């Protein structure tokens, strides 16, 4: 039986599989809140997140002892870069040049436009955003998906012409959806799994509709270059991802979060 894992900001907790006994060693995992991929179990009914579940599925059967610390994304990145932690569950290649990436791209974020249900608007390139109020979140950067869209947001933000509205408070994605429901924002771009999860969790089904895809953002698991075991950990991760995908276990993980199964990890779902 597994010990209960609790994640709190800035604190580390360990989880060791019973009966492992093989002394494979400890892996320090730097987590952050981006549900359903990386979740605070206290706020999500015990769910740890898709990316964390993948890490557990791979390393616990090999006898590794996992230690987690939950903070924000920037701090998680820095802790893996400086070697104080070994793994960050997910990132894209543009997030850091000082973190080694898994050989396997295990999933892609599908950056999807959302509108209020009943809106006839659909995304047909940047020009189609004209005359619409676009919502975004402070700190987001879309360069890896669409430099043109990022330039559009930056230009209107500088002009302060009301065409782009930024949200910076807690539960940012949920707040953007509420602004859209109230008619203060017309369109918003976010990963489809993230929005689908929030809509289901907060009983917002039927209030919003997808309106086109901006692009796909491949996600990897990151490893500290300062850890001499990193090549070994990456090899185990890549082998484990293949096992999870081919066995159907990855789809089982998605279903835990109320998400539609993907036919293949890393596939543009």
TrEMBL record:
Residues 26-261 form the Solute-binding protein family 3/N-terminal domain. It comes from the Bacteria. The keyword Signal applies. Pfam families: SBP_bac_3. InterPro entries: Solute-binding_3/MltF_N. The keyword Transit peptide does not apply. Keywords: Signal. PANTHER family: ABC TRANSPORTER SUBSTRATE-BINDING PROTEIN, MEMBRANE-BOUND LYTIC MUREIN TRANSGLYCOSYLASE F. This is Probable amino acid ABC transporter.
């Amino acid at each position: 039986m597994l010990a209960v894992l609790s994640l709190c900001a800035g604190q580390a907790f360990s989880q060791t599989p019973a009966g492992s006994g093989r002394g494979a060693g400890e892996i320090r995992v730097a987590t952050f809140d981006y549900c359903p991929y990386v979740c605070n179990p206290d706020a999500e009914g015990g769910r740890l997140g898709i990316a964390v579940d993948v890490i557990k599925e791979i390393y616990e059967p090999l006898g590794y002892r996992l230690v987690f610390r939950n903070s924000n994304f920037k701090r998680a990145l820095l802790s893996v870069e400086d070697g104080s932690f070994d793994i960050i569950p997910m990132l894209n290649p543009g997030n850091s040049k000082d973190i080694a990436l898994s050989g396997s791209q295990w999933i892609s974020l599908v950056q999807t436009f959302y509108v209020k249900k009943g809106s006839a608007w659909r995304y047909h390139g940047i020009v189609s955003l004209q005359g619409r109020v676009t919502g975004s979140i402070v700190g987001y950067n879309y360069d890896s998906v669409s430099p043109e869209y990022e330039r559009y947001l930056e230009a209107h933000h500088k002009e302060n012409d009301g065409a782009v509205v930024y949200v910076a408070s807690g539960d940012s994605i949920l707040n953007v959806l509420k602004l859209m429901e109230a008619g203060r924002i017309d369109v918003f771009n976010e990963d489809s799994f993230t929005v689908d999860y929030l809509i289901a969790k907060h009983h917002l089904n039927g209030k919003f509709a997808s309106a086109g895809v901006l692009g796909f953002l491949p996600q990897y698991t990151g490893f500290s270059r300062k850890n001499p075991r990193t090549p070994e950990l990456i090899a185990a991760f890549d082998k484990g991802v293949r096992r999870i995908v081919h066995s159907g276990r990855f789809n089982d993980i998605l279903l835990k979060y109320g998400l539609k199964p993907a036919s293949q990890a890393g596939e543009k779902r």
